[in-house]
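Worked example

This section walks through a single chain of length 167. The input is the sequence exactly as stored; nothing has been trimmed or padded.
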Amino acid sequence: MALTSRVSLELLATLTGSADFGAPSSRPRFSRQIDLTSGTGAGQADVIWTDQRTLAASASEDLDLAGSLTDVLGATVTLARVKVLYVAASSANSNNVVLGAAASNAWAGLLNATGTVTLRPGQVLLTAVTDATAMAVTAGTGDLLAVANSGAGSSVTYDIAVIGASA
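Given that input, the structure is written out below as tokens.
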């Protein structure tokens, strides 16, 4: 089994105004593309897990990055390092999606063991690391990514993709 992946991000904007001698404008453009070949070293990944998940009102879950998730081919996903994390909260959500700070065995790769990030409806989180170390996962003691619905009254839906290395 081989995995190749590409992460692309592009920001384009146009700011226009008015002035005495014409219409000034600014067109910033930022673009970044990361390609990962199959493997476990720098610039490589060999594991991917993707899903669309829904949490009931006030519910939470711990995603075990080292041994309880299964990929689309039915194989158990066991990550030693996370290279790419993508999480997108549905724009139809009424509540926020909160990532991080599992009660025990928290994955500290992105937010340390106690940090959280709140994704408002429609918000996207994307982080990518291409070096060999990446964001380490420690099976059994540092492998749980907590995901929570921030409130009562309605469920939340989110898309998630984790790309990484098995060693």
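What to look for: The mean pLDDT is 96.
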